[in-house]
Amino acid sequence: MDAVEELLTKIVCAGRQNKRVIIGVDGLSRSGKTTFVRKFASILSEKQIENMVFHLDDHIVGRSKRYNSGHEEWQEYYFLQWDVEWLKKSLLDNLIHQNEIELPFYDNKLDQHVYQKLQLTGKDVFIVEGIFLQREEWRPYFDFTVFIDCPRDIRFARERFQTQQNIEKFRNRYWKAEDYYMEKLRPVEKADLVIPYYELIN
Prior knowledge:
Residues 22-158 form the Phosphoribulokinase/uridine kinase domain. This is Uridine kinase. This protein is an alpha/beta fold. It is built from nine helices and seven strands, in the order αβαβαααββββαααβα.
């Protein structure tokens, strides 16, 4: 992908300045972010560029903080699913300044968090993947941002999403939050690179 080559060039240039590089991989749900991150991290490793990947969905809050809050469902998803300020200070800021961090990893089955210490020493590139990544609170931390662009009808075409109950949940909770993000933050316009979904599957 030409976009990947462009991104690699920027990373190499930053590396020559002996600085850590933080890449944000943005995109709406089921757009292919994880697929891209897996491939890109593998390319970095092949080029002997030490890297570490963070998935924001590993660090969501417990259910009691994001359901039945009294807010509309889409607001719970956009504003309450993650502790935005905490992640800014404890993850993003520490990627720049620390050699070790401790983060809570969410266990969906148990609805609990397990803390893990992660060593950052020796890493050249940190890749942070997640939806709504270009929030005003988070965006300044990224050296480069990638947006994976995939139409909604393709993202939710799989059979398991075709029950009426699932469609209603996605419409009221997830899709309204996505629409808010796209209209208010305009992440496609602000991203350094936009990769259409079809480039991921070709």
